[in-house]
């Protein structure tokens, strides 16, 4: 029953909620505004606004020219393609618009909430730029009508007597001057009061509809009585009907033959014996009816296109013409010329703006009585109506108007009339005045809508540098946004050519429509639970087809404009991604990311990575202080230097306690980890585990970290500080248990010692070396890590040096040679040095030879391998068992499981010793011939030896073979501890002395880390051994392999 009041409250909130609330993302603000009563239905709210926005300047000023240049069939294909694109986009838009309440904001709101803030911001700004350039196009159309058809005498830069580039420059300058004046006036009107613009909208729409009806009426009238619009043709060249009244060279009068005004245009006097233009003398004058009518059959002539180069004369097909091909064309200003070079893709770019404007209904969604019903019906009806008008007009123009008149862009052949006006009834002035007012109205609508769109983007706060444009007057009018819009619009007006501006705005609109289709397709395919549109007549294939059409049209219109538009959108996308505000709008891109991640994880589970793809996927175990802050931040600096943003990184921390009591501390710890990761630029995930003790919590992290195939394979943990202090004894015990667990889990382990001395990400080493002491083969980790570190700018200039240890009976020169060859095949640049030590110096350190090439070569010779096969065998060294190949004498090769130790009393005889810990690997079999003595055959064929720091058994000559068997291993721990410890420390000191001698000045020393003893009573001795081994070294990275090869010589 307690839920009843809550439901009532919810319904009350929904009842008074205002869709147009200014702060839509602030839930509290929803209660502060009471909505006005919705008042507009489908007709007034969606259908008529869409009609007004779709019909525009291109229909009146360029449609006839498009039909003439592209032909009826070509133009119909363009119109059909563009109208199909907008229809498919409208279907996608209807699905999105009916999937919940769409506040005012139109396409920007829909895309940003469907595809996320990055896409929303990028496409929203593109849509804004498109709308702004549309305003420039409408203003240029308005000036073109004014200066060419209504008041040519108003031109500031006179065109009289000019021809070619000069005349073109004068026309463009007139457009710039008048365009700037009209833009200033329109911006002032919008600034003073938008309500006047909205009131005049219906008047402007009435002008458009009346103009279109006048054209249809004119077409019908041509079937009964075609209008009289003669055009004059000299030879086959169309003449500009200006400066003459009769289309003839001479006329007969009572007193004889008299020359006409046309004669005087081509000759130097009015007399018959005057010197005239050669082409004028050699060709006849003919008069052709410009509007022959729908029944004339002219459609056949206009079916196919006629494309022209700039400056070519518009010619009529089928009329004989006599011209000297070598003679220059004179009196060019007397002919109708092509003002631009035309081609099919140009026509697409010029035409497409005439089908834009389909978003007008969705932009008014806040004022609609039932937006989810009105937007689909009104928009699709409007597109159907306009598409029908456009497609029918293509055939009407082709069937009624002479081809040369269609190709005459400015109506110069029909006495300077607007070409579409010549077809209108009752007078051409109906079209001229109607189109003038419609372009004015469309320009005002663009200057009204664009600033509001920019203001909506700015108020969302996703693009920081646009926030200033979110402010406005006290009543909310976007003053600053209007100022920016006017400036951008002015840049379009300075271009001054309608044909050059049209493709620019085509790009931006096409990009916007493409992302509307993408949003719908994405939501449908992902089947997100919230995707429940009321509009059911959509399908992802339609959206995908619409998206493909938009992309194709972008490159068809202009490939370089398309690339520029995409670069602009891409730059905005990346800017929002890096600098924008974090917004969670439940967008489809997040759903797509989840689906892609799931798919990738499922693929990763198919098997372990190949050696070539292996890289350390780190689990970083960070220690926390009492305030849940990270104790050693440099651990994450090292992580960044190792990873460089690649692969998986999990930064984990362990807390002691219970989950119920310590959850707030865990939250603080996770926040602290994320903050430090962001500071150190570590890309990865953070995880905090709470358990009754730190040991178990760390164990849980190692076991449960990662997901599916995205698992860590390497653990990074710092050396326990102050481990010798009594109160910290648990720390080092936990550390040794961690080493045991990583070994059991076959994970690699990296232990940086003196982590505070490691460089930060901002430091740079300009010289120095990274020294690798390769004592035990660990799968290649020691080789791979310096290579990865040197990819980072901190270590980039450091050289790599590799030291390996030879015993007295080893051939040091051959070892160095073989190791150098191996590194060459690994494509690793490093200096190689072989350090010779007495057997007793390294006996206590479990030792495995890495590259004793001399013995391998001897084996290969014995089995007579070819040279190529021998080279391949170089790699197999790293694939062999972890036991060393050791040469006992020049003619014998044996497999040694651990390093022998010399007794002080006897230096002649090597004593057999065995490791305690054996890791079985059934895939690696020892060759029977490699086993020399019973004491060395403890590991059965198939056993794999793992390097381990163990208690060693001191045998003597007469020790029976049983001492090396598992039963004999029990006696190993009966050895006197003092003697063992002395030898162990002796080994550590000797090795440490050699390392300090060679690597004192190294920037980093990498060492094999032996495994801990099985017997936990030797743990403290193990820590002492490592401490002595690394004493006096500034930065040390102890490395323990994970039991698999991580580096290969193959490509």
UniProtKB/TrEMBL annotation:
Compositional bias per record (Polar residues), positions renumbered to this chain: 891-900, 924-938
Major subcellular location class: membrane
Protein location: Cell membrane
Amino acid permease/ SLC12A domain ranges (all copies): 46-219, 333-619
Superkingdom of this protein's organism: Eukaryota
Pfam families: AA_permease, SLC12
Region of interest: Disordered: 871-946
Reactions accelerated catalytically: K(+)(in) + chloride(in) = K(+)(out) + chloride(out)
Spans through the membrane: 40-61, 73-96, 108-129, 136-157, 177-194, 201-220, 340-360, 380-406, 504-525, 537-562
UniProt GO BP: cell volume homeostasis; chemical synaptic transmission; chloride ion homeostasis; potassium ion homeostasis; potassium ion import across plasma membrane
UniProt entry tagged with the keyword Repeat: no
Assigned keywords, A-Z: Cell membrane, Chloride, Glycoprotein, Ion transport, Membrane, Phosphoprotein, Potassium, Potassium transport, Symport, Transmembrane, Transmembrane helix, Transport
Domain SLC12A transporter C-terminal: 633-751, 764-891, 983-1051
GO cellular component: plasma membrane; synapse
Keyword Transmembrane: yes
GO terms assigned for molecular function: potassium:chloride symporter activity
Membrane topology summary: Multi-pass membrane protein
PANTHER family linked to this entry: SOLUTE CARRIER FAMILY 12 MEMBER 5, SOLUTE CARRIER FAMILY 12, CATION COTRANSPORTERS
Family designation: Belongs to the SLC12A transporter family. K/Cl co-transporter subfamily.
Protein name: Solute carrier family 12 member 5a
Organism: Paramormyrops kingsleyae
Taxonomic placement: Eukaryota, Metazoa, Chordata, Craniata, Vertebrata
């Amino acid at each position: 029953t307690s839920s009843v009041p809550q439901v009532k409250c919810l319904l009350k909130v929904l009842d008074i909620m205002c869709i147009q609330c200014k702060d839509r993302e602030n839930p509290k603000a929803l209660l502060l505004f009471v909505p006005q009563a919705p008042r507009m239905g489908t007709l007034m709210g969606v259908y008529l606004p869409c009609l007004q926005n779709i019909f525009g300047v291109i229909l009146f000023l360029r449609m006839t020219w498009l039909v003439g240049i592209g032909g009826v069939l070509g133009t119909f294909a363009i119109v059909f393609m563009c109208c199909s694109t907008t229809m498919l986009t409208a279907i996608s838009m209807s699905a999105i618009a009916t999937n919940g309440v769409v506040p005012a904001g139109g396409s920007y709101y829909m895309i940003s909430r469907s595809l996320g803030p990055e896409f929303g911001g990028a496409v929203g700004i593109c849509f804004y730029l498109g709308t702004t350039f549309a305003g420039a196009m409408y203003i240029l159309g308005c000036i073109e009508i004014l200066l060419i058809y209504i008041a040519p005498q108003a031109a500031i830069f006179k065109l009289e007597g000019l021809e070619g580039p000069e005349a073109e420059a004068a026309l463009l300058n007139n457009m710039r001057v008048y365009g700037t004046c009209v833009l200033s006036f329109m911006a002032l009107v919008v600034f003073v009061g938008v309500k006047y613009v909205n009131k005049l909208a219906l008047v402007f729409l009435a002008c458009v509809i009346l103009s279109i009806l006048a054209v249809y009426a004119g077409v019908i009238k041509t079937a009964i009585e075609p209008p009289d619009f003669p055009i004059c043709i000299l030879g086959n060249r169309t003449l500009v009907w200006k400066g003459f009244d009769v289309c003839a060279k001479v006329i007969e009068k009572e007193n004889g033959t008299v020359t006409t005004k046309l004669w005087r245009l081509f000759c130097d006097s009015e007399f018959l014996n005057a010197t005239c233009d050669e082409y004028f003398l050699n060709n006849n004058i003919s008069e052709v009816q410009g509007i022959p009518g729908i029944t004339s059959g002219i459609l056949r002539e206009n079916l196919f296109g006629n494309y022209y180069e700039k400056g070519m004369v518009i010619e009529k097909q089928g009329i004989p013409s006599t011209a000297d091909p070598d003679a220059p064309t004179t009196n060019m200003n007397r002919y109708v010329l092509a003002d631009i070079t035309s081609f099919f893709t140009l026509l697409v770019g010029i035409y497409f703006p005439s089908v834009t404007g389909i978003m007008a209904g969705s932009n008014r969604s806040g004022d609609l009585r039932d937006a989810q019903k009105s937007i689909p019906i009104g928009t699709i009806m409007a597109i159907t109506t306009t598409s029908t008008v456009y497609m029918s007009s293509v055939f009407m123009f082709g069937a009624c108007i002479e081809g040369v008149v269609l190709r005459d862009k400015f109506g110069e052949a029909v006495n300077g009339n607007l070409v579409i006006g010549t077809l209108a009834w009752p007078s051409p002035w109906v079209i001229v005045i109607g189109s003038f007012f419609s372009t004015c109205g469309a320009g005002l609508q663009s200057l009204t809508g664009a600033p509001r769109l920019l203001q909506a983007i700015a108020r969302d706060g996703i693009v920081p540098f646009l926030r200033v444009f979110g402010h406005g007057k006290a009543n909310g009018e976007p003053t600053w946004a209007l100022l920016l819009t006017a400036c951008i619009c002015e840049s379009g007006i300075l271009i001054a050519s309608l044909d050059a501006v049209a493709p620019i705005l085509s790009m931006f609109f096409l990009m916007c429509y493409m992302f509307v289709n993408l949003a719908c397709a994405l939501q449908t395919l992902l089947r997100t639970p919230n995707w429940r549109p009321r509009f059911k007549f959509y399908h992802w294939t339609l959206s995908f087809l619409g998206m493909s059409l938009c992309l194709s049209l972008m490159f068809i219109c202009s490939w370089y404009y398309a690339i520029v538009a995409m670069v602009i959108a891409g730059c905005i996308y990346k800017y929002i991604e890096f600098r924008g505000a974090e917004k969670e709008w439940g967008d489809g891109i997040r759903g797509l990311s989840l689906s892609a991640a799931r798919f990738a994880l499922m693929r990763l589970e198919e098997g372990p990575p190949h050696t070539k793809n292996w890289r350390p996927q780190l689990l970083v175990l960070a220690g926390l202080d009492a305030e849940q802050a990270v104790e050693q931040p440099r651990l994450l600096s090292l992580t960044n230097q190792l990873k460089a943003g690649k692969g998986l990184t999990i930064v984990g921390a362990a807390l002691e306690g219970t989950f119920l009591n310590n959850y707030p501390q865990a939250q603080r710890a996770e926040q602290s980890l994320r903050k430090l990761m962001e500071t150190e630029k570590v890309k990865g995930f953070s995880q905090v585990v709470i358990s009754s003790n730190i040991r178990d919590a760390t164990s849980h992290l190692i076991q449960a970290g990662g997901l599916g195939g995205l698992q860590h394979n390497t653990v990074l943990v710092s050396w326990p500080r102050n481990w010798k202090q009594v109160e910290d004894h648990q720390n080092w015990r936990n550390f040794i248990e961690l080493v045991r667990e990583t070994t059991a889990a076959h994970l690699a382990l990296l232990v940086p010692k003196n982590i505070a001395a490691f460089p930060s990400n901002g430091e740079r080493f300009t010289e120095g070396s990274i020294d690798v002491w390769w004592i035990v083969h660990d799968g290649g980790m020691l080789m791979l890590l310096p290579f990865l570190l040197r990819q980072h700018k901190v270590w980039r200039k450091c050289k790599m040096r590799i030291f390996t240890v030879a015993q007295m009976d080893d051939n040091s020169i051959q070892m160095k040679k073989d190791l150098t060859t191996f590194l060459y095949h690994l494509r690793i640049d490093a200096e190689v040095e072989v350090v010779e030590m007495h057997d007793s110096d390294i006996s206590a350190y479990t030792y495995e030879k890495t590259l004793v090439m001399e013995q391998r070569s001897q084996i290969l010779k014995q089995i007579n391998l070819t040279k190529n096969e021998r080279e391949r065998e170089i790699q197999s060294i790293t694939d062999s068992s972890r036991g060393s190949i050791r040469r006992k004498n020049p003619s014998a090769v044996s497999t040694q499981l651990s390093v022998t130790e010399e007794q002080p009393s006897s230096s002649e005889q090597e004593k057999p010793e065995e490791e305690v810990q054996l890791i079985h690997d059934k895939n690696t079999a020892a060759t029977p011939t490699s086993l020399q003595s019973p004491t060395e055959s403890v590991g059965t064929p198939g056993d794999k030896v793992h390097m381990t720091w163990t208690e060693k058994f001191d045998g003597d000559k007469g020790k029976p073979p049983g001492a090396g068997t598992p039963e004999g291993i029990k006696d190993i721990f009966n050895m006197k501890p003092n003697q063992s410890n002395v030898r162990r420390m002796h080994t550590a000191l000797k090795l440490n002395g050699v390392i300090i001698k060679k690597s004192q000045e190294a920037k980093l020393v990498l060492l094999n880390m032996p495994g801990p003893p099985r017997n936990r009573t030797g743990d403290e001795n193990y820590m002492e051994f490592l401490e002595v081994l690394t004493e006096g070294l500034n930065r040390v990275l102890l490395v323990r392999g994970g039991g698999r090869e991580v580096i290969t010589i193959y490509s």
